[in-house]
Amino acid sequence: MTDLSMQDHGDTIAVLGAGKMGEALISGLLKAGLPAEKLVITERYPARAREMTERYQVRAVSNLEAAKTADTLVLAVKPQDMDDLLTELSPAVTPERLVVTIAAGITTSAIERRLVEGVPVIRVMPNTPALVGEAMSVLAPGSNATEEHLARAEAIFRPVGKVLRLPESQLDAVTALSGSGPAYVFFLVEAMTDAGILLGLPRSVAHDLIVQTIYGSAVMLRESGEHPVALREAVTSPGGTTIAAIRELERHGVRAALLAALEAARDRSRQLAGGQ
Ligand SMILES: NC(=O)C1=CN([C@@H]2O[C@H](COP(=O)(O)OP(=O)(O)OC[C@H]3O[C@@H](n4cnc5c(N)ncnc54)[C@H](OP(=O)(O)O)[C@@H]3O)[C@@H](O)[C@H]2O)C=CC1
Ligand SMILES: O=C(O)[C@@H]1CCC=N1
């Protein structure tokens, strides 16, 4: 995580749509040291705007004011709300602005078509661990975005985790894998906690055991450089407990279920591009 408190903060950033992901980004940026006066937010409902202002001391403005005043506009509304937002923004967004979209499925070309000629657009797929400085954000430039624009977008997402550049053709797959990924991990925690309860452990104990186990395993994966198969084999003693569990996971098709689940998420991302 980059400490932003000692850096030059030329850009002002507007987060348009401060919902779950918008808030994770705002919170992560402030924790990384970005001064609150460099951030503004927009929200559909005044009550949510007030909540954000009270919680983070960031200013809430209208979409039009954000478009006229902020250097970078981060579009963080649901894909289904993007059309209305672009209708509102399009008269005010000039090529001096950088537009960053984090919406699943919405392509840079679809956004470029709705704005005046030449506006740089970058599509980013972050994830909610931005909240704790551990996001995975993948960036893809649109047709007007230069190296300088990519660097500006990376400067927003690097302080809240890792960043990677990929061609836009891979962003629907990225959305399925790392965009939605935290939900699969939380789902696994929920299911394993239930399993602990089935085996007679108190819920809070089961929860703590599995959270630390997932955390430790993630650190091992990141720091050892070992292949996950090698790490799993090291846990799987001959004739032991782990292989008894793995047999059940294979019998219930967990691997196939994950392949199908991620394909479904990728397909849904593609569908959202068509406004469905
Ligand atoms: N949640 C996640 O983990 C991730 C989400 N994304 C993407 O981020 C975007 C937001 O997702 P998420 O945060 O989950 O959704 P949310 O619904 O929580 O957030 C969107 C927010 O935008 C508000 N909004 C809608 N229209 C406007 C508008 N015209 N002007 C200002 N605010 C508006 C919504 O208000 P209201 O509540 O009234 O609808 C809501 O508060 C989506 O496009 C999603 O694909 C990307 C990566 C991860
Ligand atoms: O569920 C969704 O559509 C969004 C995109 C990636 C994560 N959440």
From TrEMBL:
It catalyses: L-proline + NADP(+) = (S)-1-pyrroline-5-carboxylate + NADPH + 2 H(+); L-proline + NAD(+) = (S)-1-pyrroline-5-carboxylate + NADH + 2 H(+). It is found in: Cytoplasm. NADP(+) binds at L16, G17, A18, G19, K20, M21, A76, V77, K78, P79. Its main location: cytoplasm. Its EC number is 1.5.1.2. GO terms for biological process: L-proline biosynthetic process. This is Pyrroline-5-carboxylate reductase. It comes from Acidothermus cellulolyticus (strain ATCC 43068 / DSM 8971 / 11B).
